[in-house]
Amino acid sequence: MPDFKQSAVIAKYQKELSKYHSILADSTCSICNINGTNPCLNGGVCNVLDKYTYVCSCPDAYSGTYCEHHITCNPNDCGPNAACTVFNHNKVCSCPLGYTGDPRFGCNVKISRGCIRGDPHYTTFDGSSFTYMGTCPYTITQTYDNSFNLTGYNSFRGHSTSISYLTSFELFTKNTNFEITADLKLYINGIRHFFPHYYPSLFNPIVKITKWFDKVKIHDYSTGAVIDYKNHQLCISVPQSQLFLGAGRTGGVLGDIDGTCADDYRFKNGTVLNIPCNQASSKEAAEFADSWVTNPNYNNCVLGKIIQNNTNCVCILLLA
To answer: Where is the VWFD domain (predicted)?
Structure first.
């Protein structure tokens, strides 16, 4: 460009700049409102730094000098099962409730586990421990809507009338009852079936039941629950999903899943024993677990509180 043309262009812009400087010199005018126009786009807020300088404060989902760039999440910005949100002008990956892991690479379902072992000792989903000897059928765990229910059956060990252990259990899920008997036989809605069994079909199983020697394993694909049973010991693992997670979402002797053991001793009527997590006395544990008994008249069964009272009587006689 010839020098005279370049000089003319520069002079034009200098004149234009001088015009805006004179406008800004007016005390009623602002760099953020020249001719009634906000230089910041998409809802950005214009902040005056000095008479001739401003900076835009952009909404979370926008960036750039003038808030001209829209920040959006794309399907592959985060790992599997992770959620992408826009916060403070950046894409943020996070694991949803009930999941754990590095969200940039993927989130895995959190699992809660409760167990019944020995003669029998119970460990709740949130970590409380107690012992219960009753032999009447009782709710191990159930969902608040009772769409999922696990019932346990204890029997006295040998000739003892004070020590019991878990000998059989029933799982109710998808409106179907699955029973594992004391001799490890499988019944579905009262009809004998053989291991392995895929319900309702091999090619589209909702529940899978397998047996390896004396170990029985049940996968409930509809809820994500897994039950392991061997030698009178049962553990159930459930995902921290909406069905199971939260105060009062589940009930039974294994309590609920809310990250606190303080409310684990919740009676069926909703009453909670106000005791430390692992310090329930035998009497308190019996009262709590008895509240979850489903049939106190089953097969000459004995409630836990009766066994506890009889045990105390024997101890008193021995000490007399």
So the answer is: 112-302
